[in-house]
């Protein structure tokens, strides 16, 4: 296994609810050359908090029409998905057609289709360890809208031991998020 990339706290500040917050550093690391079946990458997201916000991946869209599959190895996570809003065939990054929040734990598998931007948050007390099958290199354009809007549609925070959502005010007319389990999400996509 080889370290492929690492996101420091300084690199994550543009997408945090509180860019001045402190917490675990690095926030997450991605490893490749796993030698594990068909899995290509392993992402390890630190436990902890940045102020009240849970550690998360930066978030991105895919520039290609290829689904991505995840397997939760260990830990507790929430996958935030936001579906692109199209008007007259053009994408409006400040608007979402829907926001889904998928609670996932060890052995859950999820397939993400290309119309969704996404980010994982570690909502547990141990590292969140994920495998994925993504082989296409990411381009700066994959992160552009997320950077411009300072994160995904909602920030996942902790309040009195529970997950609380904070709307990202850089988005317009946010839809009410829908919570699902990994199993419910896979059924939802097959509709």
Walk me through what this model shows:
The chain is globular and about 45 Å long. It is mainly beta and 191 residues long. It is built from three helices and twelve strands. Helix content is 12%, strand content 47%. It starts with a strand and ends with a helix.
How would you state the average pLDDT, rounded?
Answer: 92
In CATH terms, the superfamily is Jelly Rolls
User: What ranges have pLDDT less than 50 throughout 5 or more consecutive residues?
Assistant: none
CATH classification class: Mainly Beta
Number of domains: 1
**Order of SSEs, N→C?**
EHEEEEEEEEHEEEH
Number of strands: 12
Write the layout of secondary structure elements.
Elements: E1 2-7, H1 9-12, E2 28-36, E3 39-45, E4 68-74, E5 76-87, E6 90-105, E7 109-112, E8 116-122, E9 128-132, H2 140-148, E10 154-159, E11 162-167, E12 178-181, H3 182-190
Parallel strand pairs: 6-12
Antiparallel strand pairs: 1-2, 2-3, 3-9, 4-7, 4-9, 5-6, 5-8, 10-11
Please provide a brief summary of the model.
This protein is mostly beta strands and 191 residues long.
Short descriptors:
mainly beta; six-stranded antiparallel sheet; Jelly Rolls; four-stranded mixed sheet; globular; 3 helices
């Amino acid at each position: 296994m080889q370290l492929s990339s690492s996101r420091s706290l300084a690199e994550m500040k543009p997408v945090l609810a509180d860019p001045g917050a402190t917490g675990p550093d690095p926030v997450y690391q991605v490893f490749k050359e796993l030698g594990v079946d068909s899995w290509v990458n392993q992402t390890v997201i630190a436990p902890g908090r940045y102020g009240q916000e849970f550690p998360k991946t930066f978030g991105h869209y895919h520039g290609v029409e290829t689904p991505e599959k995840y397997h939760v190895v260990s830990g507790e996570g929430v996958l935030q998905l936001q579906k692109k809003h199209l008007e007259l065939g053009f994408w409006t990054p400040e608007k979402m057609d829907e926001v889904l929040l998928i609670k996932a734990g060890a052995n859950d598998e999820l397939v993400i289709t290309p119309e969704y931007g996404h980010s994982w948050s570690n909502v547990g007390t141990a590292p969140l360890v994920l495998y994925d099958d993504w082989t296409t290199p990411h381009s700066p354009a994959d992160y552009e809208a997320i950077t411009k809007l300072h994160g995904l549609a909602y920030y996942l925070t902790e309040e009195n031991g529970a997950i609380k959502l904070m709307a990202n005010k850089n988005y317009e007319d946010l839809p009410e998020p829908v919570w699902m389990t990994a199993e419910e999400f896979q059924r939802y996509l097959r509709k």
